[in-house]
Design goal:
41% helix, Cytochrome Bc1 Complex, Chain D, domain 2
């Protein structure tokens, strides 16, 4: 193996330490997504994949329909059987309330029926951008 230098012990540790120090840090999985990085197109895909089993834009399913959710009071979709907790919550849906809701619905409104969470800040931002777009806002 001509041309190769075999390093061992402290030399390898020193080289790895230098390489690790010069590498840029990995982005945090918990860092909130900035509004400018939100994508309604990605949000549509995430909505279909992760929300679509229970929700639709235009029809009530297990969960209420979502078109026009921005600016709507929680528990206000006609003909949907909301929990008393959500009806009494007084929440008006906007980017901030939807982000908090999608992080942990049961924490935001104890007694609600929705238990699903979107843990990724980027996915929440994308879904919120999509719902905002579909609400005409």
């Amino acid at each position: 193996m001509a041309g190769f230098v075999r390093l061992a012990g402290p030399a390898v540790v020193a080289m790895l330490s230098i390489a690790a120090a010069s590498a840029s840090p990995a982005p945090s999985a918990h860092a909130p997504a900035s509004p400018s990085s939100a994508s309604a197109a990605r949000g549509a895909e995430i909505y279909e994949a992760k929300c679509g089993a229970c929700h639709s834009l235009d029809q009530n399913r297990i969960g209420p329909k979502h078109r026009g959710v921005f600016g709507r009071k929680a528990g206000a979709v006609p003909d949907f059987p909301y929990t008393a907790a959500l009806k009494k919550s007084g929440i008006v849906w906007n980017a901030k309330t939807l982000d908090t809701w999608l992080q942990s619905p049961v924490k935001m409104v104890p007694g609600t029926a929705m238990g699903f969470q979107l843990r990724s800040a980027q996915e929440r931002a994308d879904v919120i951008a999509y719902l905002k777009q579909q609400s005409g806002k």
